[in-house]
Automatic annotation (TrEMBL):
Residues 358-458 form the Alpha-L-rhamnosidase concanavalin-like domain. GO terms for biological process: carbohydrate metabolic process. It catalyses: Hydrolysis of terminal non-reducing alpha-L-rhamnose residues in alpha-L-rhamnosides. This is alpha-L-rhamnosidase.
Length: 918
């Protein structure tokens, strides 16, 4: 009997031990170099390495790490760290750990792994990560010549509606030995597709990302070892026009920058199994033709393709290219060559059409069901020479025809000519459209929805945020924002995807980039864009309103160019990216000094260009309001914004070790604050300037209001929103960037919620109620003058998405520990929502906030990533009313502003609160 009891006891202990061991399982995942998923050819000699710790246990903290980096996978697997062994480093850093090993060389391969030590045990990374260094110096490209064809073909034209056929290149090579490793480095301007032995290399589209090619040119790198074989091989490329051969070439040359005809430079590095190597470069032995099936590709106007001109096997060996000519040496673009450190675009989604209807004109209107960005794939059978025309638009007129007035002079038309050989499937290569509806002309027979598929195209970055609430309108606004944001990521953030603009306006992303960062992993995209802005800076320090400066808009103001600083601040706040601040700081400071020296008059910034752009006008047909009572003083806007930028620059000076600048920022901020209040503050009536909501929200948000008047100014502003404007938006692009958070921070989350859930004009919900599936450019975008009513813009989102996450879900990075090292979880439970279920994939891992409440109780489920912590604010002051994972709260809490605050370490928690404070 005793033996049985003993065995039972042992079994119970063993089971409990196994259970405890399983519950403490720790893993290391998502190893990244420079926050890139596929870091081939980076141009950083001391790259930053990051990883995530996963565990099903609570309270997991990293105490140390050890990184091993090797030059080959074999060395790494043998734990031979011939590049770097960090040793065991006592640190909780798991993000942006700087490589500190042997100096890395051109085209250096590096394989790495990490062992993480925590207070719950240690874990090794399951996967081995890899990165490689690119071509670091200009000299390493000097033996590679740019090739192209500096002539027009017979059907080409340069005009307001330029047409230029695609350039096709081919080069047959003979590899005499067995290939061990091979990489290709390519710069294809404006856009390229690369083939080896008939196979397209990579799944990217519209590559590379656009830049000002006179300042910097991006190259892409591909490992093509598996594509090459001993003996004969064929290299082939197609060059499209992109932003290089400008969409309105030689039209308004004083405004639109152009770069010439398409060209390319390529290097193929081959390492053989015997240790020898070879480099194949572009030169004048490459063959070229412009007589292929892509007759024209113009981002504004569309792509024309004649399948009868297809050249079967052109990118394989033994193709007869006797009618091709030798490529010509051409002038290089002029910009410095850089590795592309942000993903290319990709077909990220497919959309099935919901209907197709015949029209009295003998055409068909196809409805995709969603305003999207990309192109249409066509499936058709017909006779040789049949020509199908597809015209794209965002909406329809009352008679059912396409509404195209808002496209301005963009033709947005694709043309496909059939070869007549059975079923043909086609989609364009070098353009994109913003559209929901397509008019189909010339289709042989009667088309159905099965003949078409919408291909959604944007940067290959992942969605990081989800949001659902008890309010259906807010949920649809979130969905519309998600569609609009991703559609306007095109290697840079553009304003719209449909009309003859599509430009990277700075003012559209001043605060918008911050909100977007909750929905998308946009860190590398915006780091690249800051470089675009830096390269656009004039010698004396000025910045444009559009960068890259494809449009020459150098007019000087604060609110648009100031985006340079606010986006850098977003990257620091959301991703903990101090390196980008240090890199850009000298150029940001140069602009700040430029504006101070040229436009600061009597301690106020005396220059504004756009005002509070897109204030809801007094008439539904107007683009811009003409009522002075709705407009905010430009000097107030620029002075308030410049003051806020000084505060940010002071923080940046500390990060960039520019302590000598701090005193100047402090002194200037004090002077501007004094002058600002002396001129604009009405102390008798407690409002600023002419009492617009924007005139009051900026000084409140930026800390310009004297302490003793803050509540009075806010109450006045809230009255303007609630009573004068009857609970509707009255702000434009500038004011809306700070409206929702300011209302909530001053205790009127209910009023912010009213703005967010409104269905009547002007509001985001009004757009939804009128059929919008993205965000409009104008509050009255369905009725305004068509010269400016894009139905896919993001600038009017303001701080709405930030408010969704930080104030409704309670997912906010503590500014004192940027990058979500510590999370502030402080939802406004009394704003009006009854539940919110949101998540955000931070650089440390997934943060979840799922709460629901009734009149008296709150149930809140939260997840905090390993190696982080959270401050959790609860609507009570009584610890006895709180249970965490069914247990009582007896310590580790404080009371702050009538809220009970818990500091929780990583893990999953269910929190229940009774008798919640209303």
């Amino acid at each position: 009997m005793k033996k049985i009891v003993l065995h039972t006891f042992i079994l119970i202990v063993s089971f409990c031990f196994s259970l405890a061991k399983a519950q403490n399982k720790i893993s290391v995942t998502n190893l990244q170099c420079e926050m890139l998923n596929n870091p081939e050819g980076i141009d950083v000699l001391q790259p930053r390495l990051s990883w995530q710790i996963k565990s099903d246990a609570n309270d997991v903290k990293q105490t140390a790490y050890q990184i091993i980096v090797a030059s080959t996978l074999e060395n790494l697997n043998a734990n031979k760290a011939d590049l770097w062994d960090s040793g065991k480093v006592t640190s909780d850093a798991s993000v942006n750990v700087v490589y500190n090993g042997k100096k890395l060389k051109d085209r250096q391969n590096a394989f790495w792994k990490v062992t993480v030590f925590t207070d719950k045990g240690e874990a090794k990374s399951a996967e081995n990560a890899h990165f490689s260094i690119g071509i670091l110096t200009y000299a390493d490209w000097k033996s590679t010549r740019w090739i192209g064809y500096e002539k027009l073909s017979k059907d080409d034209s340069i005009s307001q509606y330029s047409k230029l056929s695609a350039r096709y290149f081919r080069k047959e090579i003979d590899l005499k030995k067995q290939v061990k490793n091979a990489k290709v480095y390519i710069m294809g301007m404006g856009l390229y597709e690369l083939y080896i032995n008939g196979n397209k290399i990579g799944n990217q589209v519209l590559a590379p990302v656009p830049t000002d090619y006179t300042k910097n040119v991006k190259y892409n790198v591909f490992d093509v070892t598996s594509q090459l074989k001993e003996g004969k091989n064929m290299l082939g490329t197609i060059l499209g026009n992109g932003r290089f051969f400008a969409m309105r070439q030689d039209y308004k040359p004083y405004k639109i920058k152009s770069f010439g005809l398409p060209k390319m430079a390529l290097q193929l590095f081959v390492e053989y199994t015997d240790g020898s190597s070879e480099v194949i470069r572009t030169d004048d032995t490459w063959k070229l033709t412009t007589d292929g099936p892509i007759l024209s590709n113009n981002e504004y106007d569309g792509e024309e393709y004649d399948a009868r001109k297809e050249m079967k096997g052109w990118n394989t060996i033994n193709f007869d290219d006797k009618n091709w000519v030798n490529a010509r040496y051409v002038q290089e673009p002029g910009g410095f060559y850089e590795a592309q450190m942000t993903p290319n675009m990709k077909i990220k989604d497919e959309v099935k059409p919901i209907s197709i209807k015949a029209t009295p004109r003998g055409t068909y209107i196809l409805d995709i069901g969603q305003n999207m960005v990309g192109w249409l794939q066509l499936k058709v059978k017909g006779k040789s020479g049949d020509q199908i025309t597809m015209k794209f638009a965002e909406s329809l007129q009352k008679d059912g025809s396409l509404y195209i007035a808002n496209l301005r002079d963009a033709k947005t038309t694709d043309v496909y000519t059939l070869k007549g050989e059975g079923e043909e499937i086609w989609e364009p290569r070098f353009i994109f459209h913003g559209f929901r509806f397509v008019e189909i002309s010339g289709f042989p027979g009667k088309p159905t929805v099965d003949n078409f598929v919408g291909k959604v195209v944007y940067d290959d970055i992942k969605t990081t945020g989800t949001f659902e609430s008890s309010d259906a309108i807010m949920n649809q606004i979130f969905k519309n924002a998600w569609w609009g944001i991703r559609g306007n990521y095109k290697g840079m953030p553009i304003d719209c995807p449909q009309r003859n603009e599509r430009q990277p306006w700075l003012g559209d992303r001043t605060t918008g980039a911050y909100g977007e960062s909750f929905l998308f992993d946009n860190q590398t995209l915006y780091a690249k864009w800051l470089d675009d802005i830096k390269y656009s800076q004039t010698q004396d320090g000025g910045l444009p309103d559009v960068a890259p400066a494809f449009w020459r808009y150098y007019g000087d103001n604060v609110t648009w160019p100031g985006t340079y600083i606010t986006v850098a601040d977003m990257l620091y706040q959301q991703f903990g990216d101090a390196a980008v601040v240090k890199k850009q700081y000298p150029y940001m400071k140069k602009w700040m000094v430029y504006m101070e020296e040229n436009y600061l008059q009597n301690d106020l910034m005396d220059k504004d260009k756009y005002g509070d752009w897109c204030v809801p006008p007094e008439s539904l047909e107007l683009i811009r309001s003409k009522d002075p009572a709705r407009l905010t003083d430009g000097q107030l806007l620029s002075s308030a914004f410049y003051y806020e930028l000084l505060i940010i620059m002071k923080k940046f000076a500390v990060i960039a070790n520019a302590d000598a600048d701090i005193a100047h920022y402090d002194d200037l901020a004090v002077r501007i604050k004094k002058a600002f209040n002396a001129k604009f503050l009405n102390t008798g009536k407690n409002y600023y300037a002419n009492n617009t909501v924007t005139a009051n929200v900026l000084p409140l948000a930026f800390g310009l209001v004297p302490e003793n008047l803050k509540d009075k100014v806010f109450q006045n502003m809230a009255h303007e929103v609630e009573e004068t404007k009857q609970g509707h938006i009255s702000t434009g692009v500038i004011g809306t960037q700070f409206l929702m958070r300011t209302l909530t921070n001053f205790g009127r989350g209910d009023l912010a919620y009213k703005l967010a859930s409104n269905k009547t004009y002007p509001s985001w919900g009004f757009m939804v109620e009128n059929g919008a599936t993205t965000i409009w450019e104008l509050w009255n975008g369905n009725t305004a003058d068509p010269s400016m009513n894009s139905q896919n813009h993001v600038m009017l989102l303001g701080d709405l998405l930030i408010w969704y996450y930080e104030n409704m879900a309670g997912i906010k990075s503590n500014p004192e520990t940027p990058g979500f090292k510590q999370i502030i979880m402080k939802p406004d439970f009394n704003a009006g929502l009854t539940f919110v279920n949101a998540s955000y994939e931070s650089i440390y891992g997934t943060i979840k906030s799922d709460w629901k409440k009734n009149k008296n109780t709150l149930e809140w489920k939260i997840s905090i990533p390993a190696n982080t912590s959270a401050l959790v604010y609860l609507p009570t002051v009584n610890a006895s009313d709180v249970k965490v994972n069914k247990g009582k709260v007896s310590k580790n809490y404080k009371i702050e502003n009538n809220k009970l605050v818990l500091e929780l370490s990583s893990g999953t928690y269910q929190i229940n609160v009774n008798n919640i404070k209303q």
